[in-house]
């Protein structure tokens, strides 16, 4: 019975060298021939939307709040201004993402 099991499940040892077949060598070479990953367009789109006329007033409020906190030592945070600015940027950017994907 032991010989039956060894026939079904041959022993494999870590020290054995595996000779690659030509098909396996071609499979390894194939990923190198693939195209490079496309450039991420998200930062560029978000930067442009941050400078959009609709978002500029919100950006100005955020920068003023940051200045007050850093220079004057105001006891506040600028989370609300940040959320409003990011919301504006996202509203501007999302349709542009999908236009680039299509």
TrEMBL record:
Swiss-Prot/TrEMBL keywords: Electron transport, Membrane, Mitochondrion, Mitochondrion inner membrane, Respiratory chain, Transport
Instruction: Extract the InterPro entries matched here.
Output: Cyt_b-c1_6, Ubol_cytC_Rdtase_hinge_dom, Ubol_cytC_Rdtase_hinge_dom_sf
Compartments, record wording: Mitochondrion inner membrane
| One matching Pfam family | UCR_hinge
Source organism superkingdom: Eukaryota
Tell me a GO cellular component.
mitochondrial inner membrane
Q: Which residues form the Ubiquinol-cytochrome C reductase hinge domain?
A: 40-101
Q: Mind telling me what this protein is named?
A: Ubiquinol-cytochrome C reductase hinge domain-containing protein
Species name? Lobosporangium transversale
